[in-house]
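Example record used in the benchmark description.
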Amino acid sequence: MPNCFCGTSSNRAPEVKYVGIHKDPSVIGDLYEVVVEREGQKPYRLNSRTDIVNHSPTGVCWGYYGSGPAQLALAILVDYLTEGDQRPYARSEYNDPIIERALSLYQDFKVSVIGCLSMDSGWELTDRDVENAITKLTIKQMQEL
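Model output (structure tokens):
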């Protein structure tokens, strides 16, 4: 089992919260949904960012280390690093430093954060959780150079 990077100790109110919703399996439609609650904005459904990499055309998921969690990891990192920018990215724009950063981190983020979430329930990740994981993963990547 990999080291999971979830959890923070700060009492500061989060500016961004990612809320994973595990829906009733008897209802037709997506079983998993993520809503972004960003301070000063109306909550919105997380864009899965299949315009950047399409791991899972059926949507996002969590609680294991497959294609749905990879899509979710990429989506959260892009949303967090772009501060909620919803514009689509063409494959030719991979030289965008923010997208490059998300692409360099998302597989490790999938293993250390998304895969550790319970598949059968909802969850919340705050901006601090995401930043904490990004920091730890960046340090890990630098040590591996």
